[in-house]
């Protein structure tokens, strides 16, 4: 019989030693993370308390009259001289606003940083602020992601597909994904692709840009999307078809197929997507999957044409618009205000 290979003691020791290094490193990573969280919590509380002190000082009648609008200017100068950076007039203004917006300290979330609150407090509409506050916590948005969603007027865009009660629910509960309709935005804002709106581009260029910027695209699509593939092959008989983008939605537990059109959506595009959905239901979906969802994205859609094209289709199929530039906030805000005043 051949002798069994013996384990090299040096290699075994080296492996165990490396595990020791990894465990100790993990301990310090955890300690550093907890320390950062603790410092962040203390910073937010200190900013809130500073705002409280300012507001209570202002409310003391005669004293307020003495300092008036110059209070924050004087405070910024004196605190900077005494404490160093971090006490600019702008920062003090937002500390004051933090207290006025969250008068109960316990309603603050330490899952967000001061930089998050600095952006949130730029919202004048309390419903809008509440929405982004809830979504930032729930989705774990970084500050950069929060700024992008605010800049793209996500709250107003979602609000316009609802009613007044729906807007209140949106603000208080965040964007709830309960049905296929809940994942649809109209329009989708794809400014991150870098494609100029007036350029004549091919659908493949848009598709490539979305894949290149998949993180931003997933942020725009919303919660629950997992990327499966691009140009997904569908063999039917002797023909070969390709779906531009395929995702799996982890909340709705179903596949989501997206076809991109560089111009207006035509009725034939709807029929083609319906074909893809039928194939997925029969050939791809597992018994525990829900029926797939199809989204045809184009720069324009004629509502009456889409109504007739979608009529009688039993699959979950939607036509929606996209745009390659940020929407005009003033126009969305006007529509949103009109909705609330109905």
What does this structure look like?
The protein has 342 residues and is an alpha/beta fold. The protein has 3 domains: 27-120, no CATH class; 123-176 and 328-342, no CATH class; 188-326, Trna Endonuclease, Chain: A, domain 1, CATH 3.40.1350. The chain contains 14 helices and 6 strands. A 6-stranded mixed β-sheet has the order 1-6-5-4-3-2, with helices on both faces. The chain starts with 8 loop residues before the first helix and ends with a helix. The mean pLDDT is 88.
Concise structural overview:
This protein is of the alpha/beta class and 342 residues long. It is built from 14 helices and six strands.
Keywords:
single chain, 342 residues, alpha/beta, Trna Endonuclease, Chain: A, domain 1, 3 domains, 6-stranded mixed sheet, 14 helices, 6 strands, 54% helix
Strand content: 5-15%
The CATH topology of the largest domain comes to: Trna Endonuclease, Chain: A, domain 1
The number of distinct helices, counting runs of at least 4 residues, comes to 14
Q: Give the CA-based shape.
A: globular
Secondary structure tally: strands: 6
Distance between the termini: 90 Å
- Tally of separate domains: 3
CATH class of the largest domain: Alpha Beta
Secondary structure class reads alpha/beta
Could you give the order of the helices and strands?
HHHHHHHHHEHHEEEHEHEH
By CATH, the architecture of the largest domain is named 3-Layer(aba) Sandwich
The description of the largest β-sheet is: 6 strands, mixed
Write the layout of secondary structure elements.
Blueprint: H1 9-58, H2 62-67, H3 71-83, H4 89-101, H5 114-120, H6 126-139, H7 143-151, H8 154-159, H9 164-173, E1 188-189, H10 203-212, H11 214-221, E2 225-236, E3 239-249, E4 254-260, H12 267-284, E5 293-298, H13 303-310, E6 316-323, H14 329-340
Parallel strand pairs: 1-6, 4-5, 5-6
Antiparallel strand pairs: 2-3, 3-4
Helix pairs in contact: 1-4, 6-9, 10-11, 12-13
